[in-house]
Amino acid sequence: MTTPRRPLARTATRTTRRTTVRTTVRTTATLACVLLATSAALSSCTASRQEPGQAVAAVADAVELADSAVATTNLTVVLLDGGDLVAPVADTAISDQIGELSDASSALTTLVPPDDTSSALRVQGLAALAMAVDAVVSARAWVAHTAGGDLGPDGGVPTDPRDVVDALDEAADQLEAVLTEAGR
Amino acid sequence: MKKLLGVALGILTAIGGFVDIGDLVTNAVVGARFGFSLVWVVAVGVIGICLFAEMSGRVAAVSGRATFEIIRERLGPRAGGANLVASFAINLLTLTAEIGGIALALHLASSVEPRLWMPVAALAVWLVLWRVKFSIMENVVGLMGLLLIGFAVALFLLGPDWSQVAREITQPAVPEGEHPAAYWYYAVALFGAAMTPYEVFFFSSGAVEEKWTAKSLGQNRLNVFTGFPLGGLLSVAIAGCAAVVLLPHGIEVSTLSQIVLPVAQAGGTLLLAVVIVGIVAATFGAALETALSSGYTLAQYLGWSWGKFRRPAQAARFHVTMMIALLLAVAILMTSVDPVAVTEFSVVFSAVALPLTYIPILVVANDPDYMGARVNGRVANTLGSVYLGIVLVAALAAIPLMIATGAGS
Predict the structure, then answer these.
(1) What ipTM is given for this predicted complex?
(2) CATH annotation of B22-405
(3) Contact between B261 and A76 using a beta-carbon 8 Å cutoff
């Protein structure tokens, strides 16, 4: 008995084709799922205009970030003043917090508030943030002064740590007032 | 006496080598947000890593072969290849985080920009990989990593209300004001940080490097079951310091400089210096381990000559892989990406990749063809199966939780 070559070859070709088609369909489906998931994940990032509730939450998030930066700076100043911290670590800690304030500022300034309530809250948030930036930048200047730099009162640099802490406390109060307004 | 010293050294290096930048950052973030309420996850993660590290060490000691050689043999080249791609990518992300961690720690000590430290750190890692013997490298860095014990000292000096701490640990709950999804997102991140896959690749390949045999199994168990839990306690101490000092101030941890402030408050500049050296050593050690793991995984999958016990010329492709991985890590960091953010993502993606590493280990540890009489016992298998369930749940939940919570924010 001889084996019919042609039909077998055809079956094999058909099976290969079917497998190829199946693999292509599977790959396409997987790619589609990945694309869909990516679009879903990124859709929130592209929405600059938000719902009122979302905008208030975005303002509150940014203000919370600033509040944390002010609290970190306050702790750093107290520790350096008490001799528990060295100047390079204090400088790094405060410079990191300036970066956090910059992120908070970016979040607030790029927000497009959809209603008057969130817009007013954003204005308050920006004012409180400006105060926080001043206080944290002054604190860093005080650290440089403490480390033996040439900065002094003539350059507007506080020399008394109590002044630095007071400014930070005041900034924290402003930020917390905004958070209270936002319902946090 | 010599044997006793060897055992002690093994345990000490296991403790010192346990904590890396992922553990440091994740535990501090969690402590500052959730207090002690996620300590149970560290405990679950430590039991898991002990279980699977012991298994992978036993497989390497008995079969004389490392994890990835066996993964390819058991899963075949296609499934093994997919596993390699995922593991290599996660490992590269972790290596990037570790190099960033060294740079941040040096930035903390010197105020010099971290981006200037990054190439220096990578160069130092490469020099050690190129020139230093495996045992010296492992022991020196592991012992210096022990300086992180400063976090435990700091927690003790801070003197929290221990009964309150015990209550938070034993009766965990989502703190007021926190969303349950964020709580579970960080639970998955902590679990991923404790069970990072590179630890197993490094551990099993290290067993081959050090020429373990069946006789080394006792020491393997002692190192793992004593060293790793004590290393886990260091993780808890990091979270504890953040919970005691940063949480009441409303400080959200987003930088390495915040993590050391509680140490300064508790122990002043001396303890701070000790901890900073510990952080440099721990991240440096982890960078060595992850760089080696990139070489190990690729070389073991492709059947190249590998290992630090060979001269670089005899394992050229293995060494080139590590060099390329280091260059890629520096290139990623030079894009101004935040190393702390890289770390946070690396632990979450580690959680996603956990089943790829741990399922094959459990399969091989049960295979009498490889293991002979040293196959898993009933207890190891029961625990291993339970952990596979946990690992699968963590892997499936990681990405949805990341999207739902905006990466924990």
Answers:
(1) 0.87
(2) 1.10.4160.10
(3) yes
